[in-house]
Automatic annotation (TrEMBL):
Organism, as annotated: Candidatus Scybalomonas excrementavium
The keyword Nucleotide-binding appears for this protein: no
Keywords: Glycosidase, Hydrolase
Keyword Hydrolase found: yes
InterPro entries: GH, GH13_cat_dom, Glyco_hydro_13_lg-like_dom, Glyco_hydro_b, Ig-like_fold, Ig_E-set
Ranges annotated as spanning the membrane: none
Pfam families: Alpha-amylase, Alpha-amylase_N
GO BP annotations, alphabetical order: carbohydrate metabolic process
Gene3D superfamilies hit by this protein: Glycosidases, Golgi alpha-mannosidase II, Immunoglobulins
UniProt xrefs under SMART domains: Aamy
Protein name from the UniProt record: Glycoside hydrolase family 13 protein
GO MF assignments: hydrolase activity, hydrolyzing O-glycosyl compounds
Family: Belongs to the glycosyl hydrolase 13 family.
Glycosyl hydrolase family 13 catalytic domain boundaries: 154-608
């Protein structure tokens, strides 16, 4: 039986007025107002400079007297009365047209009913207009359609799978940061707690190739590789040669011996050797192998994203050659560290050059002398070289589908230069491959780069990873801090999400990389233990202790249903744990996977991929309270409701699904329910009564429902 008194308490004030009086004119119902930048509320969604743009807003039916569109272009402000164009049983829809323009347009809505007035912008209802949260339209800003809501899989290659043991890094093959390289014989060994860059497990691109069936069965649509260019470290964010795939990830066709001799070091930081990876035969063969691999991945309908590290290179780089490995090799110019007359000298910023060469210092990223910062402002040759690298890998024969840009906001020595570089970068990449994605690593407000002339999107820390991990676990993304006041705090979650999402254009939000874990932060599954720790202080086993898979499954439900491109860090789906770097880079547990978690990921990925609403639909925050989040994802023909209960007890909630446009005659079908113990895809039907869905949520659970008519 429906609890009428309880339902009545859920009504807003204007609805109660109508019930009391029967004929009194209702007050403005702010909860019914909705607009965003998706296909239902902006037409066209990604307009060109030659398109007039229809923008729409939804109101409660017969509830408002006047809707005004207020827009700003080139400093001028315009008011247009919006016209009612459509109605259904619950809502009216108003539309106004913004004339075509070559310049960015900002807009918001003013809504009036009787004495009541409010404003609606990117963040929602406001008492006063706030320019910071205006909707924004950048003409000709298009992001790749294939990336909208795409399921991405991030691979740290050395730890994924060893498909070709003949290309393994051998013991003592490299000497780097005070140590020789080490070949890890035990695939299951935990990474070293410090200076783990010397450890090589043997994972390679042939290993990826052999696991393509697995990735395709999982439902992956895009492979994002951490750096794979020539480098002496296992993470390869210290690139030695941008023109070639590292033969230890590719193929070695000429091998001069499995171990290198001990050379007398000329100082404590360098030893001279000629590595297998500098042989032209191996470099060319590895590039050819990679081109073939991309072709095979494309044939399966999947895409490839490479990691571009363009802010800095490595001290091993052929332009610097601090370790003097190229000095005597045919076909290479002298490096900037070797010879002050090197053609690469101005690629870097040197200090105390009178101490040449061995005591000369140079500008390193964050002071790291193994990561010399590239000096683009001084060297036009370097500038053009890197732009050609950007173009090369998205062009035939490699044809990769885009770049993830490492520490992209740090590039250059000024903000003005940084923005100009990325404008030029975008131009050459998009000319070579118009459907390539440009995705930047960035913390904080990225709005100035997301105007349609630089990046397409970012790794979504602020509007995804951080709010979700605080709410579900109370643990900071490095596992460095615990905040009880943020765990289960819906108001904090909603405030962070709406604020940070407002800084995106919709087409950049729809392709934002939504990760729970990655190579820089602790594994999400470890964060569910609500413990602060790092491997060097508490040891690796502590990362496996006290974990709660029920919380992890809640997070995956949100990852697969929140706006953006859900990105799975290799092994997360198999139950891999780990503290922050380097412990988060454990090897994939082939043969010892958590099969239930893998099957669960397959089901959630399937639900995501089958849904237009979950890829590009509107987001409606429906109801939240301590420990509870409910929201809807909708397009005109398809509507979803997602509910999360992060509490240790069962909770019954009344969800105002009318806000998501769900009518009383639209019963809802449960597609997924997760619990602490497992998950269920058994279909269960729910009735909607008076625009409200009554739902009983199990402890630590997530539920995904869809309208049956959809």
């Amino acid at each position: 039986m429906v609890d009428i008194n309880f339902l009545f308490q859920q009504l807003n004030h204007s609805q109660k007025v109508q019930i009391y009086t029967g004929n009194m004119k209702p007050m403005l119902n702010e909860e019914a107002l909705f607009s965003d930048g998706t296909i239902n509320y902006r037409i066209p969604q990604e307009p060109s400079s030659q398109d007039d743009i229809k923008v729409r807003i939804r109101t409660e039916k017969e509830n408002v007297e006047l809707v005004t569109l207020i827009y700003k272009n080139q400093g001028q402000v315009f008011d247009i009365e919006a016209k009612k164009i459509n109605s259904d049983k619950t809502f009216d829809y108003y539309e106004a047209v913004i004339p075509k323009s070559e310049h960015q347009t900002e807009y918001y809505f003013k809504v009036q009913s009787g004495m009541a007035t409010c404003y609606y912008n990117r963040r929602g209802v406001m008492d006063e207009p706030i320019e910071y949260y205006n909707f924004r339209i950048s003409p000709d800003y298009k992001t790749p359609d294939w990336a909208k809501g795409a399921v991405i899989y991030q691979i740290f290659v050395d730890r994924f799978y060893n498909g070709d043991p003949t290309n393994d890094v051998e013991d003592r093959e490299y000497y780097y940061i005070g140590q020789y390289s080490s070949k890890v014989k035990n695939w299951e060994k935990y990474p070293a707690s410090t200076l783990g860059v010397h450890e090589f497990y043997g994972g390679d691109l042939q290993g990826v190739r052999e696991k393509l069936d697995y990735l395709q069965e999982l439902g992956v649509e895009v492979l994002y590789f951490n750096p794979i260019f020539v480098s002496p470290s296992n993470h390869k964010y210290d690139i030695q040669d941008y023109d070639y795939i590292d033969p230890h990830y590719g193929v070695i066709v000429v091998d001069e011996g499995e171990s290198l001799p001990d050379w007398e070091k000329e100082n404590s930081k360098a030893s001279r050797y000629i590595s297998r990876v500098t042989r032209k035969e191996n470099l060319e063969a590895s590039n050819a192998f990679f081109a073939k691999l991309v072709e095979e991945i494309h044939a399966r309908g999947m895409k490839v994203i490479l990691d571009g590290v363009f802010n800095h290179c490595g001290s091993f780089n052929k332009w610097m050659d601090r370790e003097r490995i190229y000095e005597a090799q045919e076909g290479y110019e002298k490096g900037a560290y070797v010879d002050e007359n090197s053609p690469y000298h101005n690629f870097f910023q040197f200090y105390n050059e009178n101490a040449w060469p061995y005591n000369a210092s140079y500008d390193g990223w964050w002071g790291h002398d193994t990561l010399p910062k590239l000096n683009y402002e001084v060297s036009h040759t370097l500038y053009e070289y890197i732009l050609n690298v950007a173009k090369k890998w998205v062009s035939p024969p490699y044809n990769v589908d885009g770049w993830r840009l490492d520490v992209a906001a740090d590039l250059g020595h000024s903000s003005e230069f940084n923005h100009q570089f990325w404008k030029d970068f975008r131009k050459v990449v998009k000319e070579a491959n118009p459907n390539a994605i440009i995705l930047a690593e960035h913390y904080g407000d990225a709005a100035s780069w997301l105007q349609g002339d630089q990046w397409d999107t970012v790794m979504n820390y602020d509007a995804f990873m951080e709010p979700i991990t605080w709410f579900l676990t109370g643990v900071e993304k490095h596992s460095d801090e615990y905040r009880e006041d943020l765990r289960n705090n819906y108001d904090s979650f909603k405030g962070a999400m709406t604020h940070h999402m407002s800084r995106f254009h919709t087409q950049s939000l729809e392709i934002a990389m939504n990760e729970l874990s990655n190579h820089d932060h602790s594994r999400f599954l470890t964060r569910t233990n609500k413990r602060v720790g790092r491997v060097q202080y508490v040891g690796p086993e502590a990362a496996n202790e006290g974990i709660q898979k029920g919380i992890f499954k809640e997070a995956v439900v949100m990852q697969m249903t929140w706006p953006g491109a859900p990105t799975v860090y290799y092994g997360d789906e198999a139950g891999v744990c780990g503290w922050t770097d380097p412990d988060n880079r454990r090897s994939y547990p082939w043969g010892k996977e958590d099969k239930e978690l893998i099957d669960f990921h397959k089901e959630m990925i399937r639900i995501h991929k089958q849904s237009k609403a979950l890829r590009i639909g509107s987001l409606h925050l429906l109801h939240g309270e301590y420990g509870i989040i409910t929201y809807g994802r909708t397009v005109e023909e398809e509507k979803y409701v997602i509910a999360i209960n992060n509490l240790e007890e069962e909770r019954e909630v009344l969800i105002p699904v009318w806000k998501a446009g769900i009518q009383n005659e639209e019963p809802m079908l449960r597609l997924m329910e997760t619990t602490r113990e497992g998950y269920s895809i058994e279909p269960v039907s729910y009735a909607v009564c008076s625009g409200t869905l009554r739902l009983k949520l199990q402890p630590v659970s997530g539920v995904v429902l869809k309208t049956k008519n959809g």
